[in-house]
Amino acid sequence: MAALFFYGTLRDAALMRVVLGTDDVPLLEAVLPGYGVYWAEGQIFPTIEPQADAVATGVLLADLSPEQVARLDFYEGGFGYDLREVQVTAADATYSALVYFPRPGLWRRGAPFDLAAWQAECGPISRLAAVEALEYLGRFSAQELAWRMPMIRARAASRLAATGVPAKVRSDKGRDTVQEISSDASHAGFFVTRVLELRHPTFNGGISDTLRREVFVATDAALVLPYDPVRDRVLMVEQFRLGPYGRGDPRPWMLEPVAGRVDPGESPEQTAHRECMEEAGITLNGLEKIAGYYCTPGYSTEYFHSFIGLADLPDDLPRLGGLESEAEDIRLHLLDFDAAMGLMDTSEADNGPLILSLMWLSQNRERLRAAA
What we know:
By secondary structure, this protein is of the alpha+beta class. It has two domains: 2-119 and 130-143, Gamma-glutamyl cyclotransferase-like (Hypothetical upf0131 protein ytfp); 220-371, Nucleoside Triphosphate Pyrophosphohydrolase. Helix content is 29%, strand content 37%. The chain is built from nine helices and 17 strands. It has helices at 13-20, 66-77, 115-121, 123-135, 142-161, 242-247, 268-280, 337-346, 352-371; strands at residues 2-6, 28-40, 46-64, 81-90, 93-102, 109-112, 179-188, 192-199, 211-217, 220-228, 233-240, 253-256, 258-261, 286-294, 303-310, 320-321, 330-336. The strands form four sheets. Strands 10, 11, 12, 13, 14, 15, 16 and 17 form an eight-stranded mixed sheet that branches. Strands 1-3-2-6 form a four-stranded antiparallel sheet. A three-stranded antiparallel sheet has the order 7-8-9, with no helix packed on it. The radius of gyration is 25 Å and the shape is globular. The protein starts with a strand and ends with a helix. The model has no long low-confidence stretch (mean pLDDT 93).
Protein backbone atom coordinates (compact mmCIF):
# COMPACT_ATOMS: atom_id res chain seq x y z
CA MET A 1 0.00 0.00 0.00
CA ALA A 2 1.49 3.32 -1.11
CA ALA A 3 1.84 6.59 0.81
CA LEU A 4 1.90 9.92 -1.04
CA PHE A 5 2.70 13.46 0.09
CA PHE A 6 0.82 16.36 -1.53
CA TYR A 7 2.05 19.94 -1.41
CA GLY A 8 -0.37 21.63 -3.82
CA THR A 9 -4.01 21.71 -4.84
CA LEU A 10 -4.71 18.16 -3.66
CA ARG A 11 -4.32 19.43 -0.10
CA ASP A 12 -7.92 20.53 -0.73
CA ALA A 13 -9.96 17.70 0.77
CA ALA A 14 -12.93 18.24 -1.55
CA LEU A 15 -10.74 17.97 -4.65
CA MET A 16 -8.99 14.91 -3.25
CA ARG A 17 -12.36 13.21 -2.69
CA VAL A 18 -13.25 13.75 -6.34
CA VAL A 19 -9.92 12.44 -7.60
CA LEU A 20 -9.92 9.35 -5.36
CA GLY A 21 -13.62 8.70 -5.93
CA THR A 22 -14.38 8.26 -2.23
CA ASP A 23 -15.51 10.32 0.74
CA ASP A 24 -13.12 8.44 3.04
CA VAL A 25 -9.97 10.55 2.68
CA PRO A 26 -7.93 10.59 5.94
CA LEU A 27 -5.44 13.39 5.22
CA LEU A 28 -2.62 13.77 7.75
CA GLU A 29 -0.82 17.12 7.99
CA ALA A 30 2.87 16.71 7.13
CA VAL A 31 5.95 18.68 6.09
CA LEU A 32 8.79 18.09 3.64
CA PRO A 33 12.00 19.89 4.74
CA GLY A 34 14.31 21.36 2.15
CA TYR A 35 11.70 22.31 -0.44
CA GLY A 36 9.69 25.45 -1.26
CA VAL A 37 6.27 25.56 -2.94
CA TYR A 38 5.46 28.36 -5.39
CA TRP A 39 2.82 29.24 -7.94
CA ALA A 40 3.82 27.92 -11.36
CA GLU A 41 4.11 31.12 -13.39
CA GLY A 42 1.00 31.67 -15.52
CA GLN A 43 -0.75 28.59 -14.13
CA ILE A 44 -3.43 27.90 -11.51
CA PHE A 45 -1.39 25.31 -9.61
CA PRO A 46 1.94 25.24 -7.76
CA THR A 47 5.38 23.85 -8.41
CA ILE A 48 7.98 22.61 -5.92
CA GLU A 49 11.76 22.97 -5.95
CA PRO A 50 14.70 22.32 -3.62
CA GLN A 51 15.43 25.13 -1.15
CA ALA A 52 17.69 24.44 1.80
CA ASP A 53 16.05 26.83 4.27
CA ALA A 54 12.42 26.10 3.30
CA VAL A 55 9.79 23.63 4.46
CA ALA A 56 6.96 22.45 2.19
CA THR A 57 3.66 22.18 4.05
CA GLY A 58 1.35 19.46 2.85
CA VAL A 59 -0.67 16.37 3.65
CA LEU A 60 0.18 12.70 3.78
CA LEU A 61 -2.19 10.08 2.46
CA ALA A 62 -1.17 6.58 3.51
CA ASP A 63 -2.36 3.09 2.61
CA LEU A 64 -3.47 3.96 -0.90
CA SER A 65 -4.71 1.09 -3.01
CA PRO A 66 -3.32 0.46 -6.53
CA GLU A 67 -6.64 1.71 -7.94
CA GLN A 68 -6.35 4.98 -6.03
CA VAL A 69 -2.75 5.46 -7.16
CA ALA A 70 -3.90 4.85 -10.73
CA ARG A 71 -6.52 7.61 -10.37
CA LEU A 72 -3.89 9.99 -9.02
CA ASP A 73 -1.44 9.10 -11.79
CA PHE A 74 -4.14 9.76 -14.37
CA TYR A 75 -5.01 13.14 -12.87
CA GLU A 76 -1.42 14.29 -12.28
CA GLY A 77 0.69 12.26 -14.69
CA GLY A 78 -0.11 14.07 -17.91
CA PHE A 79 1.34 17.35 -16.69
CA GLY A 80 4.98 16.24 -16.68
CA TYR A 81 5.29 14.96 -13.12
CA ASP A 82 7.31 12.00 -11.92
CA LEU A 83 6.98 10.15 -8.61
CA ARG A 84 10.02 10.25 -6.34
CA GLU A 85 10.46 8.93 -2.82
CA VAL A 86 11.14 11.40 0.02
CA GLN A 87 11.09 11.46 3.81
CA VAL A 88 8.31 13.55 5.34
CA THR A 89 7.43 14.33 8.94
CA ALA A 90 3.91 13.96 10.32
CA ALA A 91 2.73 13.73 13.93
CA ASP A 92 6.36 13.68 15.19
CA ALA A 93 7.16 10.64 13.07
CA THR A 94 9.08 10.20 9.82
CA TYR A 95 7.49 8.46 6.84
CA SER A 96 8.69 7.38 3.42
CA ALA A 97 6.34 8.82 0.83
CA LEU A 98 6.11 9.42 -2.88
CA VAL A 99 5.79 12.95 -4.29
CA TYR A 100 4.80 14.20 -7.74
CA PHE A 101 7.80 16.31 -8.75
CA PRO A 102 7.72 18.39 -11.96
CA ARG A 103 10.38 17.58 -14.50
CA PRO A 104 13.28 20.06 -14.50
CA GLY A 105 12.51 23.25 -16.41
CA LEU A 106 8.83 22.46 -16.81
CA TRP A 107 7.54 25.48 -14.86
CA ARG A 108 8.98 28.81 -13.82
CA ARG A 109 8.51 29.66 -10.17
CA GLY A 110 6.30 32.58 -9.19
CA ALA A 111 5.16 33.88 -5.80
CA PRO A 112 4.89 31.55 -2.77
CA PHE A 113 1.84 29.32 -3.15
CA ASP A 114 -1.22 30.23 -1.08
CA LEU A 115 -3.68 27.36 -0.69
CA ALA A 116 -6.43 29.58 0.74
CA ALA A 117 -6.17 31.93 -2.24
CA TRP A 118 -6.33 28.97 -4.62
CA GLN A 119 -9.39 27.57 -2.84
CA ALA A 120 -11.17 30.92 -3.10
CA GLU A 121 -10.27 31.70 -6.71
CA CYS A 122 -9.77 28.33 -8.41
CA GLY A 123 -11.24 25.71 -6.09
CA PRO A 124 -14.82 25.57 -7.43
CA ILE A 125 -13.71 25.36 -11.08
CA SER A 126 -10.96 22.81 -10.32
CA ARG A 127 -13.27 20.51 -8.34
CA LEU A 128 -15.93 20.59 -11.05
CA ALA A 129 -13.33 20.07 -13.77
CA ALA A 130 -11.97 17.05 -11.87
CA VAL A 131 -15.42 15.44 -11.94
CA GLU A 132 -15.38 15.49 -15.75
CA ALA A 133 -11.69 14.57 -15.95
CA LEU A 134 -12.06 11.41 -13.90
CA GLU A 135 -14.89 10.25 -16.18
CA TYR A 136 -12.21 9.60 -18.78
CA LEU A 137 -10.11 7.24 -16.65
CA GLY A 138 -9.45 4.16 -18.77
CA ARG A 139 -10.58 6.00 -21.89
CA PHE A 140 -7.66 8.37 -22.45
CA SER A 141 -4.03 8.43 -21.39
CA ALA A 142 -2.84 10.94 -18.79
CA GLN A 143 -1.17 12.91 -21.59
CA GLU A 144 -4.41 13.04 -23.58
CA LEU A 145 -6.22 14.24 -20.47
CA ALA A 146 -3.67 17.03 -19.99
CA TRP A 147 -4.33 18.19 -23.56
CA ARG A 148 -8.06 18.34 -22.83
CA MET A 149 -7.81 20.06 -19.43
CA PRO A 150 -8.02 23.69 -20.66
CA MET A 151 -11.37 22.99 -22.32
CA ILE A 152 -12.52 20.90 -19.36
CA ARG A 153 -11.80 23.86 -17.07
CA ALA A 154 -13.55 26.23 -19.48
CA ARG A 155 -16.66 24.03 -19.43
CA ALA A 156 -16.54 23.98 -15.64
CA ALA A 157 -16.31 27.78 -15.56
CA SER A 158 -19.31 28.07 -17.88
CA ARG A 159 -21.30 25.71 -15.69
CA LEU A 160 -20.54 27.79 -12.61
CA ALA A 161 -21.56 30.95 -14.49
CA ALA A 162 -25.03 29.53 -15.23
CA THR A 163 -26.82 31.35 -12.40
CA GLY A 164 -30.20 31.68 -14.10
CA VAL A 165 -32.42 34.64 -14.98
CA PRO A 166 -35.73 35.93 -13.51
CA ALA A 167 -38.85 33.82 -14.10
CA LYS A 168 -41.74 36.29 -14.08
CA VAL A 169 -43.30 34.90 -17.29
CA ARG A 170 -41.73 31.50 -17.79
CA SER A 171 -41.82 28.57 -15.36
CA ASP A 172 -39.84 28.96 -12.14
CA LYS A 173 -39.25 25.20 -11.83
CA GLY A 174 -35.63 24.48 -10.99
CA ARG A 175 -33.24 21.97 -12.52
CA ASP A 176 -33.58 19.96 -9.29
CA THR A 177 -37.07 18.92 -10.47
CA VAL A 178 -35.53 17.08 -13.44
CA GLN A 179 -34.88 13.38 -12.86
CA GLU A 180 -31.53 12.62 -14.49
CA ILE A 181 -31.24 8.88 -15.05
CA SER A 182 -27.88 8.74 -16.82
CA SER A 183 -25.28 10.98 -18.42
CA ASP A 184 -22.49 9.73 -20.66
CA ALA A 185 -19.87 11.62 -22.69
CA SER A 186 -20.32 9.74 -25.95
CA HIS A 187 -17.75 11.96 -27.65
CA ALA A 188 -14.98 13.86 -25.87
CA GLY A 189 -12.58 15.81 -28.03
CA PHE A 190 -12.08 19.57 -28.08
CA PHE A 191 -15.83 19.70 -27.46
CA VAL A 192 -18.02 17.12 -25.71
CA THR A 193 -21.30 15.50 -26.67
CA ARG A 194 -23.24 14.03 -23.76
CA VAL A 195 -26.05 11.51 -24.04
CA LEU A 196 -28.66 12.18 -21.34
CA GLU A 197 -31.57 10.08 -20.17
CA LEU A 198 -34.01 12.08 -18.06
CA ARG A 199 -37.58 12.86 -17.12
CA HIS A 200 -38.92 16.34 -16.46
CA PRO A 201 -42.13 17.87 -15.03
CA THR A 202 -44.79 18.68 -17.61
CA PHE A 203 -47.07 21.71 -17.74
CA ASN A 204 -50.14 19.57 -16.93
CA GLY A 205 -48.64 18.58 -13.58
CA GLY A 206 -47.30 15.20 -14.61
CA ILE A 207 -43.89 13.86 -15.50
CA SER A 208 -42.56 13.19 -18.98
CA ASP A 209 -41.62 9.80 -20.39
CA THR A 210 -37.91 9.01 -20.25
CA LEU A 211 -36.16 11.07 -22.89
CA ARG A 212 -32.85 10.15 -24.49
CA ARG A 213 -31.18 13.22 -25.98
CA GLU A 214 -27.73 14.40 -27.04
CA VAL A 215 -26.41 17.76 -25.86
CA PHE A 216 -23.40 19.57 -27.29
CA VAL A 217 -21.36 20.82 -24.32
CA ALA A 218 -19.45 23.97 -25.19
CA THR A 219 -18.36 27.06 -23.25
CA ASP A 220 -19.43 30.66 -22.80
CA ALA A 221 -18.27 33.08 -25.48
CA ALA A 222 -17.99 36.84 -25.81
CA LEU A 223 -18.90 38.49 -29.11
CA VAL A 224 -18.23 42.14 -29.89
CA LEU A 225 -19.02 44.24 -32.96
CA PRO A 226 -16.54 47.16 -32.97
CA TYR A 227 -18.23 50.46 -33.88
CA ASP A 228 -16.65 53.87 -34.46
CA PRO A 229 -19.33 56.47 -33.62
CA VAL A 230 -17.24 59.33 -35.06
CA ARG A 231 -16.64 57.75 -38.47
CA ASP A 232 -19.97 55.84 -38.28
CA ARG A 233 -18.48 52.52 -39.35
CA VAL A 234 -18.19 48.97 -38.03
CA LEU A 235 -15.57 46.26 -38.18
CA MET A 236 -16.40 42.67 -39.01
CA VAL A 237 -14.22 39.59 -39.24
CA GLU A 238 -14.44 36.95 -41.95
CA GLN A 239 -13.32 33.37 -41.46
CA PHE A 240 -14.00 29.81 -42.52
CA ARG A 241 -16.67 28.15 -40.36
CA LEU A 242 -17.33 24.44 -39.93
CA GLY A 243 -21.04 24.87 -39.25
CA PRO A 244 -21.89 26.16 -42.74
CA TYR A 245 -19.39 23.75 -44.28
CA GLY A 246 -20.93 20.78 -42.47
CA ARG A 247 -24.40 21.86 -43.61
CA GLY A 248 -23.25 21.87 -47.23
CA ASP A 249 -23.25 25.64 -47.64
CA PRO A 250 -21.43 26.48 -50.90
CA ARG A 251 -19.86 29.55 -49.20
CA PRO A 252 -18.65 28.49 -45.73
CA TRP A 253 -16.77 31.78 -45.04
CA MET A 254 -18.80 34.06 -42.77
CA LEU A 255 -18.94 37.71 -41.74
CA GLU A 256 -19.19 37.89 -37.94
CA PRO A 257 -18.51 40.00 -34.87
CA VAL A 258 -15.16 39.44 -33.16
CA ALA A 259 -15.62 36.45 -30.85
CA GLY A 260 -13.81 34.16 -28.46
CA ARG A 261 -14.18 31.73 -25.57
CA VAL A 262 -14.45 33.16 -22.06
CA ASP A 263 -11.46 31.65 -20.30
CA PRO A 264 -11.64 30.59 -16.64
CA GLY A 265 -11.09 33.59 -14.40
CA GLU A 266 -12.13 36.05 -17.12
CA SER A 267 -15.28 38.12 -17.28
CA PRO A 268 -17.08 38.34 -20.65
CA GLU A 269 -16.03 42.01 -20.78
CA GLN A 270 -12.37 41.09 -20.36
CA THR A 271 -12.70 38.49 -23.10
CA ALA A 272 -14.26 41.08 -25.43
CA HIS A 273 -11.30 43.45 -24.94
CA ARG A 274 -8.74 40.63 -25.34
CA GLU A 275 -10.30 39.19 -28.48
CA CYS A 276 -10.50 42.58 -30.20
CA MET A 277 -6.78 42.98 -29.67
CA GLU A 278 -5.96 39.40 -30.75
CA GLU A 279 -8.24 39.18 -33.80
CA ALA A 280 -8.26 42.78 -35.03
CA GLY A 281 -5.40 44.56 -33.29
CA ILE A 282 -7.67 47.25 -31.87
CA THR A 283 -8.08 48.66 -28.37
CA LEU A 284 -11.67 49.32 -27.33
CA ASN A 285 -12.64 52.62 -25.72
CA GLY A 286 -15.72 51.12 -24.10
CA LEU A 287 -18.35 48.39 -24.24
CA GLU A 288 -22.13 48.46 -24.61
CA LYS A 289 -23.85 45.27 -23.46
CA ILE A 290 -26.41 43.91 -25.91
CA ALA A 291 -27.56 40.67 -24.26
CA GLY A 292 -26.60 37.31 -22.83
CA TYR A 293 -28.34 34.36 -24.48
CA TYR A 294 -28.26 30.70 -25.49
CA CYS A 295 -27.55 30.48 -29.20
CA THR A 296 -29.17 27.07 -29.85
CA PRO A 297 -30.89 25.96 -26.61
CA GLY A 298 -32.45 22.89 -28.19
CA TYR A 299 -29.19 20.96 -28.11
CA SER A 300 -26.23 23.16 -27.09
CA THR A 301 -24.97 24.59 -23.80
CA GLU A 302 -23.14 27.42 -25.60
CA TYR A 303 -23.95 30.83 -24.11
CA PHE A 304 -23.17 34.12 -25.83
CA HIS A 305 -22.40 37.51 -24.29
CA SER A 306 -22.86 40.09 -27.06
CA PHE A 307 -21.45 43.62 -27.03
CA ILE A 308 -20.94 46.68 -29.18
CA GLY A 309 -17.32 47.79 -28.75
CA LEU A 310 -16.66 51.51 -29.09
CA ALA A 311 -13.38 52.05 -30.95
CA ASP A 312 -11.41 54.23 -33.34
CA LEU A 313 -11.54 52.52 -36.73
CA PRO A 314 -9.30 54.42 -39.18
CA ASP A 315 -8.73 53.44 -42.81
CA ASP A 316 -5.24 52.06 -42.19
CA LEU A 317 -6.26 49.11 -40.03
CA PRO A 318 -4.62 45.84 -41.13
CA ARG A 319 -6.74 43.66 -43.37
CA LEU A 320 -5.66 40.33 -41.87
CA GLY A 321 -5.88 39.35 -38.20
CA GLY A 322 -5.92 36.52 -35.70
CA LEU A 323 -3.29 34.53 -33.83
CA GLU A 324 -1.09 32.03 -35.65
CA SER A 325 -0.76 30.11 -32.36
CA GLU A 326 -4.51 29.41 -32.53
CA ALA A 327 -4.52 28.65 -36.28
CA GLU A 328 -6.74 31.68 -36.91
CA ASP A 329 -7.10 32.81 -40.52
CA ILE A 330 -9.07 36.05 -40.36
CA ARG A 331 -9.81 38.88 -42.77
CA LEU A 332 -11.01 42.25 -41.44
CA HIS A 333 -13.71 44.36 -43.08
CA LEU A 334 -14.50 48.03 -42.42
CA LEU A 335 -18.03 48.97 -43.50
CA ASP A 336 -19.94 52.22 -43.23
CA PHE A 337 -23.10 51.92 -41.15
CA ASP A 338 -25.46 51.93 -44.15
CA ALA A 339 -23.40 49.29 -45.95
CA ALA A 340 -23.38 47.12 -42.83
CA MET A 341 -27.15 47.38 -42.46
CA GLY A 342 -27.53 46.50 -46.13
CA LEU A 343 -26.02 43.08 -45.40
CA MET A 344 -29.31 42.12 -43.75
CA ASP A 345 -31.28 43.13 -46.84
CA THR A 346 -29.07 40.98 -49.08
CA SER A 347 -28.92 38.11 -46.52
CA GLU A 348 -25.13 38.27 -46.53
CA ALA A 349 -25.46 38.76 -42.76
CA ASP A 350 -26.68 35.23 -42.09
CA ASN A 351 -25.72 34.43 -38.50
CA GLY A 352 -27.64 35.39 -35.37
CA PRO A 353 -24.96 37.31 -33.45
CA LEU A 354 -24.20 39.62 -36.40
CA ILE A 355 -27.88 40.27 -37.11
CA LEU A 356 -28.62 40.93 -33.43
CA SER A 357 -25.63 43.27 -33.12
CA LEU A 358 -26.62 45.27 -36.21
CA MET A 359 -30.24 45.57 -35.07
CA TRP A 360 -29.17 46.76 -31.60
CA LEU A 361 -26.76 49.24 -33.19
CA SER A 362 -29.49 50.65 -35.43
CA GLN A 363 -31.63 51.37 -32.35
CA ASN A 364 -28.81 52.95 -30.33
CA ARG A 365 -26.67 54.56 -33.04
CA GLU A 366 -27.87 58.12 -32.54
CA ARG A 367 -27.25 57.96 -28.77
CA LEU A 368 -23.74 56.60 -29.29
CA ARG A 369 -22.92 59.24 -31.93
CA ALA A 370 -24.24 62.07 -29.78
CA ALA A 371 -22.05 60.96 -26.88
CA ALA A 372 -18.88 60.57 -28.99
